[in-house]
Structures
1.
Amino acid sequence: MRDRVNQLLLGLVAVLVALLVALGITAIVLEVTHHSAWNTYKQMYTFGTNASNIAGAINAATTYYLSAVAVAIGFRMNLFNIGVDGQYQIAALLAAAFGGAVALPSGLHQVAIILVAMLVGSAWAGIVGLLKVTRGVSEVISSIMLNFIATAVIAYLFVPGKLGHLTSESLATTPIKSSGQVGGISLIPHSTVKVYGLIFLAVAVGVGFQFLISRTRFGFDLRATGRSASAAQASGVNVKRMVLVAMLLSGAVAGLVNMPVLLGEAHNYSLSTPSGIGFTGIAIALLGRNNPVGIAFAALLWGFLDT
Amino acid sequence: METPAAPDAAPAVVLRGITKRYPGVVANSDINISVQRGHVHAIVGENGAGKSTLMKTLYGMHKPDEGEIEIDGVPVTFSSPADAIKAGIGMVHQHFMLADNLTVLENIVLGAEPRRGLRLDKKTARAKIMQISDAYGLDLEPDVLVEELGVGDRQRVEICKVLFRGAKILILDEPTAVLVPQEVDELFGNLRDLKAEGLTVLFISHKLDEVLAVSDEITVIRRGTTVGSADPKTTSARALAELMVGSQLPVPELRESTVTDVEQLKIEGLSLHGSDGRAVLDDINLTIHRGEIVGIGGVEGNGQAELVEAILGLRPIAGGKITLAGVDITTWHTRPRREAGIGYIPEDRHRQGLLLDAPLWENRILGHQTERPNVRGPFLDIPAAKKDTRRIVEEYDVRTPGIDVTAGSLSGGNQQKLIVGREMSGSPAVLIASHPTRGVDVGAQAAIWDHLRNARAAGLAVLLISADLDELIGMSDTLHVILRGRFVAQVDPRTVTPVELGAAMTGARS
């Protein structure tokens, strides 16, 4: 127990030191280029402690968190899923189009949209898994290439007449009706920006991931495969199926990445739907050491710095 | 047991009352050793007896909790290896610490570079290395890349490295573990040259015949303390081993037969092809009864590993039938086979037997992920798994500070005991034991034999594969000889001699 506390403290200290070093180096750069480092940091502080900005940072972090967990699922079994970016974008488009096209009672509507997103993300990631187990293709290569293919597929589908509509200022999918939206919550006092309601989904994904990895047989098999595929195989794990399942899971979580924004704020897929979050997720997963709690802190830090 | 110091000179190294405690265990207690200058002094003991801890103390990698160290009669305290190096101590680690992409010369000077201004003075370095190489017969070529060298050459580079830093006392930690017999002979030649030049060598090993061949004096360590010293000219390997283990040396033997007529594992007409389509196993027929140990003798690479993997379902077979306790399991995947009670002690424990980065209790679960006490339904039962791990550690004498340390931090023998304990748990139906005592010391070897005998008496069917012919003959009820993927002979383990078995294995006798 004491060892574990020490280990945790050591991990925290490492992150803090990294942060301090980063602050120090930027301070030097600022001073060298004749800017006041003190003033800059003071402004960052005032900005960062503003209620609305905190809410904004939390919102950004929610998205980052989901992306990083998707990456971490792969990392835990030595799979480098670089394709989270393509997976979430194609899932975002199709889920948005689906949500805008159907009319379902509230409750069911949101769940249906989220399920579609997870299925699409899963399917896209599943291609990577299938290629790996049947043809031995490295997941790094196939997932990067599928990112480009995803972009091309989106460009093909997201045009006026297919899934897109020209609005006054942009190209967008049919907006999701209010029955399919998830309202924000006023988590931060005095903030004009509400926090995404789906932050709870992100928390649930984190808790579920932790539980799955550390408390279940499946999670044990997954970790064992990541640590030594040959030992896992001798212990009875079907390593190929494990690769496929891990990719499907990773893809399903990747599909969730844009859901807080889609259901809570934008209500449609448009040209302003954010891209590149899949890559941010890789950095955050590494910073958080693939641990759900660590990733949460890393995502908050990233969200804060980004806002 | 302190050996009396020679009257004319102070001993090169004196360790007096050295005690080192780790949380939960005493690794060394009250160690007393005196090493004469110009001697090869062997320190022998079982895996985990505390040899490496002691050498780390001498090399300044940690401080002893009690006791004194004297070098050439002068008391010293080391707070880091740098201090030890300054005092003329050099250590050649069991696992080499060389940079593959640098040349021999660069590796040797690394960290102790002779400089001219800011540049590496290669000329001086080369001259010094060649001088060392010639003086001790190390036969080094300074400009070859280390990645092109074999294991024996690398070891000589390591030795040269410590000599380059001015070492007068060399610690060699299990230097022969990675060498083939011919390389061992070369190493011993080098050691004699070092000795002739007045250097002192501390030789750590548990291979007794080697120790007897090369050393001038032997100190035996058991359970962390010095239990005696011996003169290699007058002692025998057997006497040494008994001193190491602390009791009569066990021999592999089976007493009364416990073989029943219940067929537990039956293999009929098994054949298997390699990736090139060639037959690796050809028409193998094998029956193991309850209470029977069936041994397979053969030169390594004649299909033993493939046979094991076929039984476990790790490798697709080309034909044949495998029946476990009357049930045809030929098409089953590995997991159901293991659930049906096939225990597995793998030949390569690092590759197939353990998760080296995972704690012991997670390794207890490995291979038994679907069985109690490790799981309840789809969930891990962590408290129960930990409790059972403690039981295994206790019953199988796994020497470890706790069950939360990683498997990789245990010595090889203790890793093996953990695996044996795990595979014996939960009453297996068949045990595949592939080289079960490879790389473990005599004490652990005897314990593993005991466990096999007890399990056999309780009705376990065992497939034993071993390169140790005494073990194979002594522990088998039935003994097959495999050659190029076929069973070529069945010999009677009660009458066959190792020489006859060896001849059959190479196909000398038809």
2.
Amino acid sequence: MFNIDMEGIDLEKIYDLIVLGGGPTAIGCAIYAKRFAMDVLIVGKTFGGLIATTHVVENYPAISSISGQGLMDMFKEHMDSLEIPYISDEIKSIEKVNDHFELHSFFQNFKAYSVCIATGSVRKKLGIPGEEEFAGKGVSYCATCDGPFFKEKVVCVIGGSDSAAKEALFLAQNTKKVYIIYRGEDLRAEPINKKRVLESDKIEIIYKTNVIEIIGEGKVNSVIFDNGKRLDIDGVFIEIGSIPNSDIAKRIGVDTNERYEIKINRKSETNIPGIYAAGDVADAPFKQAIIGVAEGVIAAYSAFDYVKEMNIEY
Amino acid sequence: MKVRAVPVSYIIEKMIKQELAKLKQPVMLKLFIDESKELETKKTLSILKSYEENSNNKLNLDIITLSKSTDIIERYQIERFPTILLIDAEGNECIRYLAAPQGSEVKPFIQSLQVLSGRKNYYEETLKKNLDNIKTSTIKVLVTKSCAYCPELVNMVSQFALGSSSKVKAEIIDILENPDIGDQYNTETVPYIVINNGEPLIGLISPNELLERILKV
């Protein structure tokens, strides 16, 4: 459940740890915190995070193959078995009050001695003409969400990452044809996915090409390349990376780098004592669920030590 | 490439039993069916029957058939079959489902049953404070079964409907099962929200964004 059930949630008490986010990083952090007997609460905007939109996950150790949604169902079951409460809301501000933090959303206020920011990232936009106009009318950022609308149609995936390759493979299952349009010379996908793409008779890769405009009449019907050529298409799936959701961190003075990622050390600590960060919102070089979970776990250890030093009774 | 099956359905089945066992007060569900649509009727009926069986007699399923009950079908303005209505204690329609509550849509559906059954609604306090400024609204949420973001949004809109003293009604529509509705809004994306047939909201939005959209000012 999304635990809007308020019975296990005491808004007056000061939580030992509030985790912001709804993906594997946040849940991994909360599971460890709970096992340290900490009072922990998760407040997230999207349960499941970006990985829930992945059609197949094959690199999460101990699970050879599962859908992103299926993986998050398993996280959910683990979380529920420990009775970790989750609230579907967005924290707008955090302030330090005496020995604790106060977190404010439009709907409620929360208090915690420590906070872990695991807010993940959002899909990057291309910023080209037509992208906004045709959002929901052929332009998409989620193949598992919108792929079913393009059965037996021709679509393109813009990007050359592993995620782009996986989106193309998913779309190829039901569409007539998938073009991958990539500005580079060689796909950056994991070799196993790159091989699958190259072997697919439905996927064609157009290298060293940028899409500069999306065109249509009511719905998308074509894209224009930087070499002036036009490709007739029914759907455009944009998969060019993501931007960290670090606004809340920046507002309270947490240091970020030039990519807006929160700077953390080996203990998942930020520059503000008691505030931790983990997962895609942090500055680790590889954005993977397993890495996020590990950083979240480290944050839980660090938060436990931090709160313990405050001599708070458990 | 095939995704190998893992025991996810077992997890959902377990969750359904656990969560339905938490129902406090009896809850009424109305299911409107057209017997001539055998396949759709059978599917929805079997899902809801399994919910009913696991609810310790707290969930009451009222089945209304097109051929026998024209009055009630007119009263609730039922135009499609099957339609599921979640009804409050006063008999008011709160949430309308033009979608089968299965797969990931199980979670928000049961959460709504729990709130109808007496559990506290997270958004209710703020909604009640703003009740005078909330427009009478019907919020349509267009979804598909494979959409990962849809369940959370369905849950949010449903809780708004349940916490707004009948000022807000929610309508959950699977547009792969009702493609003409998708065509009507010319959309190829989900989640897609339409409030009183105004400008759509595309993608996942936060609860405060939703509240801003239903306030008069």
